[in-house]
Amino acid sequence: AIAEHWRDHYRDGGHQPLKGKRLLLTAGPTREALDPVRYLSNHSSGKMGFALADQAQRMGAEVTLISGPVSLPTPQGVNRIDVESAEQMLAAVMDNLAGQDVFVGCAAVADYRPVAVAEGKIKKSEAAMTVELVRNPDILATVAQQAKRPFTVGFAAETHNVEQYARDKLARKGLDLIAANDVSQPGQGFNANANALTLYWNEGAKDLGHSDKADQARQLLETIAQRLPADENAN
Amino acid sequence: AIAEHWRDHYRDGGHQPLKGKRLLLTAGPTREALDPVRYLSNHSSGKMGFALADQAQRMGAEVTLISGPVSLPTPQGVNRIDVESAEQMLAAVMDNLAGQDVFVGCAAVADYRPVAVAEGKIKKSEAAMTVELVRNPDILATVAQQAKRPFTVGFAAETHNVEQYARDKLARKGLDLIAANDVSQPGQGFNANANALTLYWNEGAKDLGHSDKADQARQLLETIAQRLPADENAN
């Protein structure tokens, strides 16, 4: 009900804290092919990233959403680009990065991919098998390392030591803000409709409480809007 | 249009070739967990298995559908059981096998699963990583090896040497019939709405042509109905 209120508020032309801003978002999982039929992936539903794209558009932003394979409709007014693998996602991000004010890396990018993709389907002849994996490109860190970079926001989905891992990731990747999520808690995280994010930045933190993903998205975007550089030319 | 005709035909109480028969089907992919968030899976959409369940029910059968994770509605009149992993699918199949006249293994069961599932999310510390996999249980072969077994039908999704692999699988697993699909052809197979199956059994073969999955399902089920033992007590 709260999220519904805010959606209407922004739609009805109330104060739009992201008016004139350009946001680039990633959402969903990536799929890393082992062969033409098998892949490695994760349980990301894309719901949080799609909620962010939807809310950002309602808050006045021009939104580009780069999505891995999900079963979600495109939010109204959002420019959506579909990709499969982490490498494809990185290429789409870099192609669309120029002129963005904010980048939110919400996708659950596969950390590793198989070394080589087999051309034909692998035959199952052995009782055991070993898959060699290599690290995927780090999309968030790549964006954060650009000379002319947008305000860069990451996510941390952790099962334990949540704040420690989140703050470590914030510093290591040079992010402006990180949204942490304890995925070991039932009823939140990957496939849930609700979430309970805690935001961390160098000088502070903010607990968003427990609410639906639209409300969490709105709160996160309002915090981003407050923390954006006042002088657009400095960006 | 052809499939629509037959759907109506069976629904309107025409000859129902599977009347009084009990069918157990598996459909969709399985997901094999690496840790609480990552998994190994494949591109099966479940469309063929769900089309088979729907058509079998229209043709008079009592249908139990054991499905991996898919985004499909349950066909009307079908008893659906949802599972994730190959081990869970095998357990559900064995729990429901007694009294079945036909078993169709349409699921794209993951051949391998990670040796051990990590309890917490694996941290990405290494540039390369090795995942040790072990063979999953063979659900089709397990069903075919039962003393009192149903008429057992398998699928073969191949990218090359389709007939050779299909006939090898038919013999090796002791199946009654196998439906082979060349997934290297565009517009058919895993996520497509159309298919082009070829059926093989010990003494023969039947090419079903190229049509939508409902029509392919109907033709496959009619072939199964023709090949079922006439004497029910012999089953």
Task: Give a brief rundown of this model.
The first copy, chain A, has 235 residues and is of the alpha/beta class.
Description of the molecule:
- Two copies of one chain form a homodimer.
- Chain A is of the alpha/beta class.
- In chain A, 28% of the residues lie in helices and 27% in strands.
- Chain A has six helices and 14 strands.
- The first copy, chain A, has an eight-stranded mixed sheet with strand order 5-4-1-6-9-10-12-13, sandwiched between helices. Chain A has a two-stranded antiparallel sheet with strand order 2-3. In chain A, strands 7-8 form a two-stranded antiparallel sheet.
- In chain A, helix 2 packs across helix 6 (213-227).
- Chain A is globular and about 60 Å long.
- Chain A starts with a helix and ends in an 8-residue tail after the last helix.
- The model of chain A has no long low-confidence stretch (mean pLDDT 88).
- The A-B interface holds A 34, 36-44, 71, 108, 110-112, 115, 120-121, 124, 126-135, 157-160, 183-184, 190 and B 34, 36-44, 71, 108, 110-112, 115, 120-121, 124, 126-135, 157-160, 183-184, 190.
